[in-house]
Amino acid sequence: MAIGMVKDQIGLVKKCDNCMVVMKEGVAGDEIKKHNHPGSDVFFIVLIGEVKVTLNDEEHHTVVPGQILCFDGANHISAEMLKDSKVCVVLADQNEK
After folding, report:
1. Rounded CA separation 28/74 (Å)
2. I want to staple 86 with a disulfide (CB 3.0 to 4.6 A). Which of 15, 17, 25, 62 is the partner?
3. How far apart are CA 22 and CA 88, in angstroms?
4. Secondary structure of 27-94 in HEC code, one letter for each residue
5. How many C-beta neighbours within 10 Å does residue 42 have?
6. Strand 68-72 and strand 40-48: pairing?
7. By the 8 A CB rule, do 41 and 91 touch?
8. What is the predicted pLDDT for the residue at 96?
């Protein structure tokens, strides 16, 4: 029996009591519509490409591989893929310290 498992599917990768891992991908110009994740800390990790992330319609971040954008999920996020991209989003329950 294997100890680890490699996962590469798009969409929900893992959901447990205190966290969720989601993989998203798209081509340049694709958008992630404005939404939020109250009660979670969000870790937005670009694996491939370049993504412009907007928080609360006012703060902009261009995130590239090797960078992680961290923010409180009560804030609203929207994003545009500036290049063909793959991202991993981790939502961690804020009640778990």
Report:
1. 27
2. 25
3. 6
4. CCCCEEEEECCCCEEEEEEEEECCEEEEECCCEEEEECCCCEEEEECCCCEEEEECCCEEEEEEEEEC
5. 20
6. antiparallel
7. yes
8. 60
pLDDT at 94 over 70: yes
Amino acid at 63: V
Q: Cα separation of 95 and 82, whole Å?
A: 34
Note if the pTM is more than 0.85.
yes
pLDDT digits (tens, 9 = 90+) for 2-56: 887 788 889 888 888 899 999 999 999 999 999 999 999 999 999 999 999 999 9
> How many C-beta atoms lie closer than 10 Å to residue 52's C-beta?
14
Give the CA distances from residue 89 to residues 37, 50, 54, 68, in Å, rounded to whole numbers and listed in that order.
11, 14, 15, 9
